[in-house]
């Protein structure tokens, strides 16, 4: 996809982000999670971003430092369902990892995701550390994953041509 922009989320983006969430329900998110996501969008507890093309929001996702885990955690990342497999997930992940390195330097990055997204994150070097069946909703397992974001990996990401 060409002409993609990566920018900070604003509260005016809330409805579009909820639409993206709903487009991924029930395969990637449980319907019961929408209220939690809505509360998050009303007062994000971490850095949160959107990807746009021609001012249309196509994807969203964030990250924040988790003191107890001593790691940066990826939060609420998603792409509009009809646009899966068009490079938007890659774009959002790489842009977030670049921002994480700028903010925190070399660090551990963690995510809890579903079995449906596990392979996507493995392609970028994330490794599964734990699986809890039916955690998010019936049929949606929680897969804990982590990536050591090194300066070398950051340099590779900076050279990626995306969007």
Description:
Helices cover 30% and strands 37% of the residues. It is α+β, with helices and mostly antiparallel strands. The protein has a single domain (4-158), classed as Gcn5-related N-acetyltransferase (GNAT) (Aminopeptidase), CATH 3.40.630.30. Strands 1-2-3-4-5-7-6 form a seven-stranded mixed beta sheet, with helices on both faces. Strand 2 and strand 3 (56-66) form a beta hairpin. Helix 1 runs antiparallel to helix 2 (34-42) and helix 3 (88-104) packs across helix 5. The mean pLDDT is 92.
Query: What gyration radius follows from the Cα positions, in whole Å?
Result: 15 Å
Assembly context of the chains: single chain
How many angstroms does the end-to-end distance come to?
5 Å
CATH architecture: 3-Layer(aba) Sandwich
- How helical, in percent, are the residues? 25-40%
How many structurally independent domains? Answer: 1
Offer a quick outline of the entry:
The chain is of the alpha+beta class and 163 residues long. It has 5 helices and 7 strands. It starts with a strand and ends in a 5-residue tail after the last helix.
Topology:
Blueprint: E1 4-8, H1 14-23, H2 34-42, E2 47-53, E3 56-66, E4 71-79, H3 88-104, E5 107-113, H4 118-122, E6 127-137, E7 140-149, H5 151-158
Parallel strand pairs: 4-5
Antiparallel strand pairs: 1-2, 2-3, 3-4, 5-7, 6-7
Helix pairs in contact: 1-2, 3-5
